[in-house]
Amino acid sequence: MAKTEIVSVIAAHPDDEILGCGGTIAGHIAKGDQVHVLILAEGITSRDGMADRGKCQSDLSELAKAAHNANDILGVTSLTLNNLPDNRMDSLDRLDVVKIVEAFVQANASTIVYTHHAGDVNIDHRRIHEAVVTACRPIPGQRVSTLLFFEVASSTEWQPPVSAPVFAPNWFVDISAYLPLKLKALNAYASEMRPWPHARSVTALEHLARWRGATIGVAAAEAFILGRYIHKADS
Q1: Which among 4, 68, 158, 193 could disulfide-bond with 121, CB atoms 3.0 to 4.6 Å apart, if both were Cys?
Q2: What's phi and psi for 145, nearest 5 deg?
Q3: Strand 6-11 to 34-41 pairing
Q4: Are 178 and 23 in contact (CB under 8 A)?
Q5: Where does the source fall among the domains of life (predicted)?
Q6: Least confident of 9-13, 89-93, 147-151
């Protein structure tokens, strides 16, 4: 019988978790793994130059509802929505973000963690990447044995290669059986999707999955950078 895993997905904004690893999440659930999703920033208040949560409370509520709908489609074990300021995470003390991530990963006893790539153009993605790497550092007693970084369309590919580390995947997950679920979950985030040919359109995301799949000889895939893998010789 295959070993079950406890998975944490740490994302910046509602929809990043589906964009980055929605198909992989569905695969974990189908296998019987637990998947706990943490979304740290609220995802609205940076728009139109407005930082007043009171003026966009209705939009925040609708986005939270969309997040629950999208994650219910995939069947995640739990979804936690935090309220850190959207696109302003560089204004927070990094240690405070680390503590939130650390508590989440420890509470769930996670063995696999997925999060953002270090070189994304979005500042929140980069700050969360740093916080996750710190929270999952390999100290004695650390349960996390696999740390993976995903790509987020309309952020990862928008960073010029001279400005930050390039997303060069070395870990692929065959999501051929789960691509329809990923696309359905993306459609639940209708307010966050954009019309084709925007990089964050459902059509573009299907093309990306098909291309990532074609690069490894399958119908559809998601691509990651492996941050760390600790293999136990007796497992």
Answers
A1: 158
A2: -110, -15
A3: parallel
A4: yes
A5: Bacteria
A6: 89-93
pLDDT digits (tens, 9 = 90+) for 70-81: 999 999 999 999
Backbone region of residue 145 per phi and psi (left: phi > 0; alpha: psi in -120 to 50; beta: other values): alpha
